[in-house]
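Hey,
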Amino acid sequence: MLFKARFHRGIIDGSITRTFRRWKRLQVTPGNRYRQPFGEIEVASAERVHERSITERDAELAGYGSRSDLLAELAKYREGTLYRIDFRFAGADRRVALRQKDDLSEADLDALLRRLDRLDRASSHGPWTRQALELIDRNPAVVSTVLAAQMGLDRSTFKADIRKLKESGLTESLEVGYRLSPRGKRLLERLRILEANRAKQPQQ
């Protein structure tokens, strides 16, 4: 559930706390947070309603000048059930703060390593997380089609993989390509140390 740019300021300052959407099925869950270009919102409630129940106050809370303006917008989308969704601005995208957190404890690092291991084991195309981190570290701001080719993956699969790293605060999307976050760099340092230590161990 995304909002047009003209609603962003009102959502941030708290003057817009309601929206109306036509969906074939409900696409939000009360209590959950949803990312927006300007941060996150938390949904408080979502109810099926009829157009005739919409009031001038509803239109105001949804960021429209009048009830008729809101109804004109809804008229563009005739299919589906009409839902009234109340929400609040929940602050900045939590991943932004997470990316900057590089003072990781041993427990933090172990948890991230376990996360990478789970991603590798769940992958249909084999282990990929270490290679992706190294690739992005060496090639910041390189278009994703080039990086995907170097990984031997199609672009959509590669981008889906990188989104999983982004969820853990390890990468940042740029206007073109990606770069490792401070958190990602710290984890990659640990991976390189572990690899170097394994290389020093005598062969059996």
